[in-house]
Design a protein that fits this description.
3 domains; SH3 type barrels; Glutaredoxin; alpha+beta; six-stranded antiparallel β-sheet; binds zinc ion; 49% helix; five-stranded mixed β-sheet; 16% strand
Length: 385
């Protein structure tokens, strides 16, 4: 999740400021709201009612709706059970929303809306499913059990980069031109474009077509960074849908980003497993080593206490590198504490914030004094190559 998360948080700030009161009383809530001059009907599960009357709703397509009191026109509830959309219904919903010319490719867990070649959509589906398997196996071997996603996992793949940028503009703003794919906490979807498109073709002079050709193009060293971004976003989506984190909860960004960066090393060589999980992430390690030269003494404290460094473009790359390094270190050196902390964070409810002191306290309750841990962390990481 790049800048998108910032926007989500700013949209929610009104609701989040009033300490939230959870408690869905009925099975299905129906809210009519007015936004941007339009009347919108949202039916879904009520997740949070804030003290000021603001609502957080989860719709059957997995989209989260934060509705401040001034937008609400009408609100009723009944006993109809909440039912997530089936893959078929999700596909229909997608085709309704997307521009003309889109088709849908289904896999076991994914619904992929695309206007690319069928082969490219299949290549993406196979990559996601492999990651899904690798990810869930990885955590269950470490004693954390994930659950099946409640909603079909949706990915939208544009053939054309400009069409993608135009579609993503409302969510990403000006960053749409520079972000190659993203997972949205609000819509629960991934959006991206065909990485073997015209630009890559020009660079490698290769014709796109078969699965083997796609793999060949994307296995080139500079294309691998691009694939890593897609894998990174796909990791977020699985983590937020299978029980590692809860959307809109106060899971520290170093933790969710640390996991995404830990998994982002692409493994295009294998057709079954995902052998590169947990290997050293070369570019992030390099960045972390560079950061060490001027690293402030309280770097670990600022990384844990709040998410500011991830939101500041001047500090974000170092923060991502440090989040990777910390995740790498903890999973290797403090595995049971790390899983205990993961259990704790996975229970967090939407829109309840711990604040910097609360976060630090929780972290130190699991891992001990951060200064001591920091010394151990640095000793360990300077040896990693
Ligand atoms: Zn991310």
């Amino acid at each position: 999740m790049p800048t998108e998360q910032t926007r989500v948080y700013s949209l929610l700030i009104l609701i989040a400021l009033c300490s939230a009161v959870a408690g869905p009383a009925s099975a299905l809530d129906h809210v009519t709201l007015r936004r941007d001059g339009r009347e919108i009907q949202v039916d879904g599960r009520l997740l949070v009612t804030a003290q000021d009357g603001g609502l957080l709703m989860l719709a059957a397509d997995g989209v989260l709706w934060a509705v401040p009191p001034e937008e609400q026109i009408h609100h009723t509830a009944d006993d109809t059970p909440f039912e997530p959309l089936s893959p078929e219904a999700m596909a229909e919903r997608l085709l309704d929303e997307l521009p003309d010319g889109f088709d849908v490719h289904h896999t076991a867990h994914y619904v992929i809306g695309h206007d690319t070649s069928r082969v490219y959509a299949q290549w993406c589906g196979a990559l996601f499913e492999r990651l899904y398997r690798g990810f869930t196996n990885y955590w269950s071997r470490r004693g954390f059990k994930l659950h099946e996603p409640e909603f079909p996992l949706v990915a939208i793949v544009f053939a054309d980069r400009n069409a993608y940028a135009k579609f993503s503009q409302p969510e990403l703003g000006d960053a749409a031109g520079s972000i190659i794919g993203y997972f949205s906490l609000r819509t629960n979807r991934m959006t991206m474009y065909d990485l073997t498109g015209i630009e890559t073709l020009n660079r490698y002079g290769t014709a796109r077509g078969t699965t083997a050709q796609i793999s060949q193009i994307l296995a080139q060293p500079d294309a691998q960074r691009t694939v890593a971004t897609v894998v990174h976003e796909a990791t977020h989506q699985i983590a937020f849908n299978c029980g590692l984190h809860t959307r809109y909860s106060d899971c520290p960004v170093w933790f969710s980003e640390g996991i995404a960066v830990y998994f982002e090393t692409p493994d295009l060589g294998s057709t079954k497993g995902w052998r590169s999980i947990g290997t050293v992430n070369g570019p992030r390690l390099l960045r972390f080593h560079q950061y060490l030269a001027g690293r402030p003494a309280n770097s670990l404290e600022t990384l844990i206490a709040d998410d500011k460094r991830f939101r500041d473009p001047d500090q974000a790359q170092d923060a991502y590198a440090e989040a990777w390094a910390l995740t790498y270190f903890l999973i290797r050196q403090r595995p049971s504490q790390y899983v205990a902390y993961l259990e704790l964070l996975s229970q967090k409810k939407p829109l309840l914030n711990d604040g910097p002191q609360g976060r630090l306290k929780e972290f130190q309750k699991t891992f001990g004094d951060w200064r001591k841990l920091d010394a151990e962390f640095l000793r360990y990481m300077t040896r990693v190559r």
